[in-house]
Amino acid sequence: IFNLRCFYTTGEPMQTIVFDDLTQYGYRLASRQKGLDEEHCVVILRKLAKFYATPMVLLEKSPSLKENFKSGMLDETYVRSSERFTNFMSLHVRTFSDMVATWKGYEEISEKLHSYCDSITKELVETGRPIPKEINVFNHGDLWVNKFMYKYKADSSNVPDDAVFVDFQNSFFDSSGCDINFFLHINVQLHALKYRREFLIETYYETLQKALSEMNYGGIPSLQEMQDEISSRDLYGFFSLYSFLPIVALSKEDSADISLEALANKEFARQKVILMFNLTC
Q: Which of 76, 136, 218, 270 sits between 20 and 30 A of 85, alpha carbons compared?
């Protein structure tokens, strides 16, 4: 993790990046292949709620703050101008669609996926576009398992006690439904996602409500309002499923040669995406 700090020399501020090795404090990454169990998810969602609370209070006092953080991963200008990005996303969806077509009883789903892919740019723009009257928070913007580190209880190497977020280059103000759907669909073990999803959302909400109340925030949203907002952003979860989960699931050996430069080669990208989905599905 690094911090951007201002140091003053002869009265003039100078921005400086200060790096710190978090492993010396006992923090480490979780396994991206295994995914996160309920305990690991609870730590992140509680931390995320506290991370959101302060910017919500600041934004209430200074609404103009969000003007400096409007461009997330699915920023409309970026999506419409980056042919490489949309082509790679299209490759993901086409590959997945063709695979689903071989599953008996899922032919209609395959057709819907192909239809989605036919208008992939429009779909991605709609996924990232702000929705009026949403509750704005400062989204991390890229909340997958390599972007947070855990510290574990002294008497256990498997029970997480704390976590820190790293790499905020994609952060933006928008609905918490963006981060939360992204996080749930790309990191969480299937059992926890299927059977403990509502509990996880309630855990997040309880921590957010408490933090906002302690800071005298006006108009704290209800649990139902928060659930509705997360549901309204389900497409963010779908986006993470087809775009990031297959990459995250790759072994270190299979992902070692992946880079932006390598993926510019269409045949290399095609073979990697086929491998991703064969391993994931």
A: 136
